[in-house]
Amino acid sequence: MRFNCVIINVYGPNEVGLRKELWDLLVSLKSKFLGPWCLGGDFNEINIISEQIGCSRRDRGMKDFNDMIEQLELIDMPMLGRKFTWCNSQDRAKWSRLDRFLLSHEWVKNFNFKLWGLPRLLSDYSPIILMEDARHCKPKPFKILNAWLLHPNFLSFAQRCWSRFVLEGWVGFQCFMKFKTQKEALKQWNVEVFGKVENKLKCVEKEAHALDLLAEDRPFLPTEIIRRKEVRGDVWRLSKMLEWIWLQKSRMNWALEGVKNKRFFHITACSRNSRNSLCSIVVNDSMLEDPIEIKAEVEFTEEEISTVIKTRDGNKAPGPDGFNIAFFKKCATSRMKQVMPKIIIEVQSAFLGGRNILDGILIANEIVDGWKRSNKKCLVLNWILKRPMT
Question: Is residue 194 predicted with pLDDT exceeding 80?
């Protein structure tokens, strides 16, 4: 694979002002060297306050450093093996992470890089090495993409797959098997029908541009008017899908509030994927790097699992099956509406469509008033069911 890139070895000056001049120089060079950037070396600056121990605060320099990283749209590669790269080797030890690699997202997309901190021997500095990890742990687990919900055929396909699989057994077993079958069907549907959204978007954008150029030369024919309307709809729908895909991968909520920078979400998703990689663990003072050994050692307590489930948001998957809350809102709600009237008592008045929470109060008042007017004796019970504390 041919990969044109820009590699820069950096040494940051000791003074904050001189470092700021260096950061500004790097930003100005970005427009002249357009390939994917790789910056590595001793930046003499930290990214966050937790990257130092026993040192004086350096808020100004840290802000300038982060501004440079943001302007260059770089990913700060997380370091494995150790936390810091520099120590003053004194009795009152001071630690800092001054050395690092900053990569453009194209690097992370095309290579499986890992940054390791190596043992510090006689020097105050620990060497670092950026190397490609050729290990393949396992295929990525299945997960519902929220962008699927925007496809016009998704809902009907999901309902059809759910309904056509019939088997005997208790309800829990039936649901388990139906979800298992649904998962395999959606994987195949994603490849054959949903496809590569980015490629589809490029095609329809190209066609939309061609239609615009045609409109500049002559009036549209009736069929061309219809086609341009269809293409514009496809551009909007595919753009929205692509935005949702990167929003979900980046785990950011900014797009819901109006920010639609897909490149930003792409960079955030790549950075998150690097941070979440579990490449090694320490067990009984011994480091394990083999994926099979790591999988065998990593165990989660019931309390940890319970905490994760209770604190998840709607975009998280409720279990290892990969079906998130958005899927159930889209597919299960319509099915629940059909059975809800059969399992809810007629006198239930709250939280149901077509019924008002005040109906019960009004009916109770009318009954009491009727008893008063007829001078009948009655007994009124105020029964409050309180949700148990968990």
Answer: yes
